[in-house]
Amino acid sequence: MATTANAxxxxxxxxxxxxxxxxxKMKCILIHxxxxxxxxxxYSTNETADKKTEMNEIGxxxxxxxxxxxxxxxVGQMDSAKDxxxxxxxxxxxxxxxxxSMSHFRNCPRHIxxxxxxxxxxxxxLLHTNLYINKLIK
Length: 138
Description:
Strand order of the largest sheet: 1-2
Structural class: mainly alpha
């Protein structure tokens, strides 16, 4: 996240990266802009309707400008920063951090021989475990 004067540059969330990190950075930007209240609805009692609308518009536009086109298509048109934030959490928060990534499968044997049968069996169990965890969480 780079800064130019008071403008922050955040790589758009593409749906493929770590949502929790992007969300944390985006929250910091919204707090810096003094508009995160539009998402957590922690308005002070003396906030006017116009001020709440302004916070929502700034928050909504900031989030939209930090999403890729494919993520925007997936979430659809939203009129409130809070609704957009909640939709993003619904779609991407539940993505588990699976104990093993696909990089663990790079060493999977390309052919079956007596020497690598046990490795193949271990990789198969690992794959099935990861698929099972994903099904449980969704």
